[in-house]
Design brief:
By secondary structure, the protein is mostly helical. The chain has helices at about 10-20, 30-60, 65-70, 75-95, 105-110, 120-130, 135-145, 150-165, 170-175, 180-195, 210-215, 220-235, 240-250, 250-260, 265-280, 290-295, 300-315.
Amino acid sequence: MSEPTDPEFELRKKIAETATSEDARPSIFIQATQFFVVPLGIVLVCVGVYLFFSYLVSEERQPQDLVERLRTGGAVARRHAAHQLVAEVRRQSAARRPDPALVEPILSVLKALPKEDLDVRQLLTLCLGALGDRRAVEPILEELRGTADPATRAACIEALGALRAPETADPLIQLLDDPSTVVRKYAAFNLAAVAAPDRKGEAPAVSEAIPHLRRKLEDPRPEVRWNAATGLAFFLGDSAGAPVLLQMLDRTYVEGIVQDDPEHDALASDVVAKACQAIGALGDRDLKDALRAPSERDPDPQVRHAARRAMDALK
């Protein structure tokens, strides 16, 4: 059979042979550059950019720098700095290394802030609580007495609970009957924290708080009853709120209470998980069977985990 007479056949054949020949292949150096050096350079540039911005962020997160921004910045800058400062102080507190040198500067900023700057005032109050320095007790009580805003009052109450100063028990007891549900529920839980035994595990620091907390188990609002029951269990080992805790294990019941909240699913999960943890803290084995349903059937894996841990604690 004769070969094709295409006049360009030989030319295409030579081009193909040249393309596949050893001489036409890139050198080892070029291949290494293409496949290793260039990608490595891109990675190094990315790492450099990441380290640069990490440096900027770490500098910005220095508490002293954040306090200075709170002094000199505008409304948006102050709010941003306050959020960062809360995160940093809580990180210090979790590591058991709070910086007492921050107390006076934060108090100074708080005193100079406009009264209407509620968000920042709330965040700075929480910072003072997380620092755990009792120099902040009286200023926080002044802030509490000087505002009618429920969210600011709640922040003050939470800070007092974190400080655990026994002298704050009386003001918190008075707030148990406040018209605001938010204030009452915060007062109930944080009064229990203030009344808790000291680190030696002896008698409650404020034993007269217990009857007031038990009284709040009959509050008209379920949120207040929940906080009174969990506070009694967590901090005081008091099982008077056990019937309320058993109600809190019922997700359907809880969802019916919190259904109007924008974050109702997460809130319901938090309530059920807190009930599981409180029952575990009580150590009452008679309550163990009630944990079985949430441990097996709750749709939230974190709730199931909390229920199983509580059951393990009751073995």
